[in-house]
Amino acid sequence: MKSFFGNDHVLGVLGAGQLGKMLAMAAAPWDLTLHMLDPTANAPSSHLCTKFVQGDFRDKQTVLDFGADCDLITIEIEQVNVEALEELEAAGKHVHPCPRALRIIQDKGLQKAFFTEQGLPTSDYTLFDGPDDVAKADLSFPCVQKVRTEGYDGRGVKMLRSLSDLTDLLPGPCLVEDAVDVKIEIAVIAVKNPSGQVVCFDPVEMSFHPEANLVEFLAAPARISPELSEQAKALAEKTIRAFDLCGVLAVELFVNQEGELLLNEVAPRPHNSGHHSIEACVSSQYQQHLRGILDLPLGDCALRQPAVMLNILGEEGKSGPVVYEGVEEVLNTPGAHLHLYGKHETRPFRKMGHLTVCHDDLETAISLAKTLQMKFKATSE
To answer: What is the distance between the alpha carbons of residues 128 and 176, in angstroms, rounded to a whole number?
Structure first.
């Protein structure tokens, strides 16, 4: 692969949201030439890249035109036009993650089938053409309905506890999977480069918001045994090698009551479960993603200090120009790090930023994060 250092070789990124912002910040010390494509004119990373193009990354021709000026293309969001990426790859462009893997991951039905075919442990599931077929099926409750495409940040997932839940199913092609009796939910960030090197961050523990169904707290390291931690990292490595994709793969896992690991979902990009790595790890997930896609030696994933990441979500019932409350409290807390994504409008449960609290004692970090959660608000007048 061409060297991207000290020249005008262009790294293109589809998407310029908060993940793109943190990726651009990781790219800045290396002075990489970064082009970004996003439909929103004032996207969070639009002012941090070498060139920003406003356009729809779902539109084939827009992606083809954008990619024509790039030597390598990556993503910060899955919902992109894969057909265009396939054509760009066929034309000799480097594309990471590879379009073949991305096409599978975009469809949760194909993703689950891939897990099964590769012998990767996951819960049992059934595919359905739509909600009418689900309502007619002989289901065992509780179970979970997931739309096959477009679901993210808790959207497109519905818990089915009884027959009464079948009257308000999610529309479109979907899958229904057995509900796992979950003891703990964890995630592992795996990274691979084209040379075949793989490294994994230590597992993190995730706690979910009860209404928004997205990660509220993340604790690093996960409070699990060293043996289970190594098993989770081994499974994450097996998963990224099975997909044969380069860059970051976030691997979300269930630990059931018997202590068994089950794959939930994967994301082929920097991920919410790796935000803490910016301050808490030797190498952040964003630097590791760059190392992976540029075929550079992968960095050290070691945790420097225990940490808790707290998502800053828009206040329930509040929409409009954002107003942040509690900035002083955060800045007065040793070990607390504030990240605001640059979204000017808030709405209920929208991800507006995150806080990371580092401390030598994990339980103390958790306590500090919970205190700051009560004080720091993304609200509106």
So the answer is: 8
Please list the residues that pair with 325 across neighbouring strands.
377
Domain for residue 144, yes or no? yes
More reliable by pLDDT, 151 or 41: 41
Considering Cα of 328, then 345, then 150, then 286, what sign does the dihedral take?
negative
Average pLDDT rounded to a whole number, residues 175-203: 97
Structure tokens belonging to residue 82: 């894969």
Please tell me the total count of domains within the chain: 3
DSSP string, 270-300: --GGGTTHHHHBSS-HHHHHHHHHTTPPP--
| 224 in the same domain as 308 | yes
Q: What is the tens place of the pLDDT at every residue in 47-99?
A: 999 999 999 999 999 999 999 999 999 999 999 999 999 999 999 999 999 99
Domain boundary among 140, 159, 178: 178
Distance, in Å, from the CA atom of 133 to the CA atom of 141, rounded to the nearest integer, reads: 16
Q: Is position 88 within any domain?
A: yes
Domain end residue (candidates: 158, 178, 198): 178
Candidates 156, 319, 228; CA nearest to 236 is 228
Residue 357 reports pLDDT greater than 70? yes
Range of the domain at 25: 10-95
Residue 167 shares a structural domain with residue 195:
no
User: What's the rounded Cα separation, in Å, for the pair 291 and 285?
Assistant: 10
Per-residue pLDDT at 189 exceeds 70: yes
Q: Answer whether 18's CB lies under 8 Å from 26's CB.
A: no
Q: Which residue has the tokens 């009551």?
A: 257
Q: Are residues 164 and 198 in the same domain?
A: no
pLDDT bracket for residue 2 (50, 70, 90): low
